[in-house]
From TrEMBL:
Gene3D superfamilies: Mediator of RNA polymerase II, submodule Med31 (Soh1) (1.10.10.1340). The keyword Nucleus applies. The lineage of its organism: Eukaryota, Fungi, Dikarya, Ascomycota, Pezizomycotina. It comes from Emericellopsis atlantica. One of its GO terms (cellular component) is mediator complex. This is Mediator of RNA polymerase II transcription subunit 31.
Length: 126
């Protein structure tokens, strides 16, 4: 088990594929729970909610966001439905300034516009 600089214990990333004898939490494996959570980070409104609830000020939660960086590498990367915005926001969340600024409705709106523009451009190219 790894530790962060604040001595917050962090587990190693879950194994892929999740084994059938892996413990379940509410009927889901740790892999499934972490996948759903990391993908939710693609939503700027959700980031704003996390900030408004002061999660982004909690050192243990910030350490958890750092731990989730394993999603940026294979084999985990291939499981992300929206890797672009998910990984971009995960990277931005590593910065204290961004964790503060995401409270701004202007920043949330700008991120949403960028996401919509990227989706439209991607469909034009496809």
């Amino acid at each position: 088990m790894a530790t962060t600089e604040d001595d917050v214990p962090m587990q190693n990333p879950p194994e892929i594929p999740a084994s059938s004898n892996e413990p379940k939490y509410g009927g889901f494996t740790r892999f499934e729970i972490e996948l759903e959570f990391v993908q939710s980070l693609a939503n700027p409104m959700y980031l704003n909610h996390l900030a408004s609830q002061k999660y982004l000020q909690n050192p243990q939660f910030v350490a958890y966001l750092a731990y989730l960086q394993y999603w940026t590498r294979p084999p985990y990367l291939k499981y992300l439905s929206f890797p672009g915005p998910t990984l971009r926001n995960l990277e931005l969340l590593q910065q204290e300034r961004f964790r503060q600024d995401i409270l701004s409705p202007d920043l949330v709106g700008r991120l949403m516009e960028e996401g919509m523009r990227a989706a439209v451009d991607w469909h034009k190219e496809a």
